Amino acid sequence: xxxxxxxxxxxxxxxxxxxxxxxxxxxxxxxxxxxxxxxxxxxxxxxxxxxxxxxxxxxxxxxxxxxxxxxxxxxxxxxxxxxxxxxxxxxxxxxxxxxxxxxxxxxxxxxxxxxxxxxxxxxxxxxxxxxxxxxxxxxxxxxxxxxxxxxxxxxxxxxxxxxxxxxxxxxxxxxxxxxxxxxxxxxxxxxxxxxxxxxxxxxxxxxxxxxxxxxxxxxxxxxxxxx
Length: 227
Ligand code: CA
Fold this sequence. Notes:
Elements lengths: L1 E5 L3 H13 L3 E5 L2 H10 L4 E5 L7 H10 L6 E5 L4 H9 L4 E4 L4 H14 L2 H4 L1 E4 L2 E4 L4 E4 L2 E3 L3 H12 L5 E2 H7 L8 H19 L7 E4 L3 E4 L5
Parallel strand pairs: 1-2, 1-3, 3-4, 4-5
Antiparallel strand pairs: 6-7, 7-8, 8-9, 10-12, 11-12
Bound molecules: calcium ion.
The site of calcium ion has 5 residues, from loops.
């Protein structure tokens, strides 16, 4: 799998390269908008990690040019904390996902795995753990032979936990990625806890095996067996 990283911050580009190479991706780095634009259009890539604030052409211009040329390479954009408008514009222009800086590397890697899986439809449209199954197209959740009646937020929350199946998810990750709140706050923590409790009741209450676990002081994990 070949990933293009378009990022002008030298240190961050190095960190991203090392992390991606450790996961056995082939990495190409572009440090300017011009170079990123050229490589994105000219090279064969499986994914583009695209910073928006770049010298030369901006990330949004690169994205727009790619999509105008009908190149459907998945694009994950990196946006500044206060760049809400850029984020929305990016998604409108055809970005597949975004992360707000600063982000945790495991989060980036999970998103990249998810985007690359999405390219293979049969796997991407369903998420499973034990007898729990999420159909992302029909937006249906089933535990065993029982359909779960979930709210939109509960579905998103469960999808997020399933995408991180077996890995710890912090309240901060949930605040940022499910609630789309860049800043974590105590009232939001309480909301998250309440939502998790409701979701757990629907998912686990009548099942033989618990899947959603709380890790005290840290967060949550969706996992078969004890955490
Ligand atoms: Ca930048």
